[in-house]
Task: inverse folding
């Protein structure tokens, strides 16, 4: 810390260095007063305008060249974050700082199941927790998945990690000259303990885990964290940032370039764009989470007697009857179509969205039709006879069922893939006229079921 250098009798500064040091001390003292105020606001979770330039951008860009002349780290506002600064590696030996985003880069963060809830109705919930795009599920119950196991012992998340990023983090943590920082831009301080438990379950550790205060925009938060650490480790020579957020990485590239062009810093800054990873919660768990939020919403409504809100409930809307493919069958069919069936799918499949999930039966939910098929849950096997496509917009398979199977459609058709811009309705597959006989026998195992979605509605 700067105060230690001031009191060290072994240190001697020339006149120019003393002037530089005095300038830094004055500015840092002014910043400390604002720092205390801001930390109080952060911890109280008050909604306040957060000025990005107050602490980091302006302070760092104006003073980094001065700090380098002194050759010592200056006093920084890094202590605003909720972690023990004393546990960080010793500043003078640190040469590299590695920053990793948790959600979407290291961890396959759960997102809403589009096939389960109507997204527009989800946003009707105005409870204290709320549902917001990707971090709506951010509760302890979601991490523990409603089991009696602890977050650390629960195995739900064992397949939700990016193996390359996980190994990079372990390598960063093991190096004496590298600081490993995990940025959690979609999580607040309330999730800190659960985060540590989930990371511990995979033997993943970081020198600092930074969670985002609720009122600070994500892009500003990430930049502030990076600048705070660069300011704290003023002798750092290399910075690596791993994130899926291209906009944030571009802004950092521009900042690194600016410093380089102005001669303000010799830092070698590298940004790495990672694929954005995501997963889905079990539908039953997701429904339970939503119902818990609705209960909280309704409780608060009664408690505070808010006349502007309505009590809510969950309703189910049915779209039709379908044959659902089993997961094993879906994988086998897609693999066969991509690897074995020639002249069916284009060589470049990057522009395709793969479906292969269900076979349309009818738009109504006729109980007599379902009964004729053996009822909900009945297992039906089909054989594939032909493959075809329509105007390079979508690709499908024509199926043959058991002769004794009730004929509820002209010919069962399985939609395999569609162009990213194509919207395909069940009856659109009747437009296909270029049917070709399949080269090999392919069986499709299905289960009869109702297709629908859940809506949050007023009671």
Result:
């Amino acid at each position: 810390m700067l105060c230690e250098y001031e009191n060290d009798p072994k240190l001697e500064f020339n006149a120019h260095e003393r002037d530089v040091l005095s300038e830094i001390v004055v500015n840092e003292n002014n910043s400390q007063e604002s720092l205390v105020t801001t930390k109080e606001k952060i911890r109280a979770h008050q909604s306040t305008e957060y000025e990005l330039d107050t602490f980091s951008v302006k302070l760092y860009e104006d003073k980094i060249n001065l700090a380098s002349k002194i050759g010592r780290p200056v006093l920084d506002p890094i202590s605003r974050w909720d972690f023990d600064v004393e546990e960080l590696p010793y500043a003078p030996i640190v040469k590299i700082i590695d920053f990793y985003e948790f959600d979407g880069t290291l961890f396959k963060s759960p997102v809403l199941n589009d096939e389960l809830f109507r997204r527009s109705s989800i946003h009707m919930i105005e409870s204290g927790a709320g549902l917001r795009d990707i971090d709506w599920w951010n509760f302890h119950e979601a991490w523990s998945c409603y089991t009696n196991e602890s977050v650390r012992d629960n195995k739900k998340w064992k397949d939700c990690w990016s193996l390359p990023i996980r190994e990079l983090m372990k390598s960063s943590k093991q190096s004496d000259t590298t600081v490993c920082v995990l940025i959690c831009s979609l999580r607040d301080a309330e999730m800190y303990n659960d985060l540590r438990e989930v990371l511990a379950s995979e033997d993943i550790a970081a020198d600092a885990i930074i969670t985002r205060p609720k009122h600070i925009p994500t892009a500003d938060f990430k930049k502030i964290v990076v600048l705070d650490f660069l300011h704290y480790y003023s002798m750092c020579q290399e910075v690596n940032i791993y994130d899926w957020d291209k906009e944030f990485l571009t802004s950092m590239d521009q900042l690194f370039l600016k410093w380089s062009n102005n001669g303000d810093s010799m830092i070698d800054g590298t940004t790495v764009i990672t694929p954005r990873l995501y997963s889905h919660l079990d539908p039953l768990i997701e429904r339970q989470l939503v119902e818990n939020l609705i209960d909280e919403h309704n409780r608060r409504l009664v408690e505070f007697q808010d006349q502007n809100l309505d009590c809510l409930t969950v309703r189910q809307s049915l779209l039709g009857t379908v044959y659902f493919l089993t997961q094993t069958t879906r994988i086998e069919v897609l693999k066969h179509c991509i690897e074995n069936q020639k002249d069916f799918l284009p060589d470049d499949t990057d522009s395709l969205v793969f479906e292969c999930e269900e076979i349309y039966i009818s738009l109504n939910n006729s109980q007599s039709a379902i009964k004729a098929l053996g009822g909900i849950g009945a297992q039906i096997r089909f054989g594939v006879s032909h493959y075809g496509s329509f105007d390079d917009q979508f690709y499908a398979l024509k199926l043959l069922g058991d002769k004794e199977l009730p004929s509820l459609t002209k010919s069962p058709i399985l939609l395999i893939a569609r162009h990213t811009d194509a919207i395909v309705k069940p009856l659109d597959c009747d437009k296909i006229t270029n049917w070709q006989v399949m080269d090999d026998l392919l069986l499709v195992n299905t289960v009869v079921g109702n297709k629908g979605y859940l809506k949050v509605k007023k009671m």
About this structure: The two ends are 59 Å apart (CA to CA). Confidence is low (pLDDT under 50) at residues 1-75, 127-136. The chain has three domains: 54-108+160-279, 284-314, 319-458.
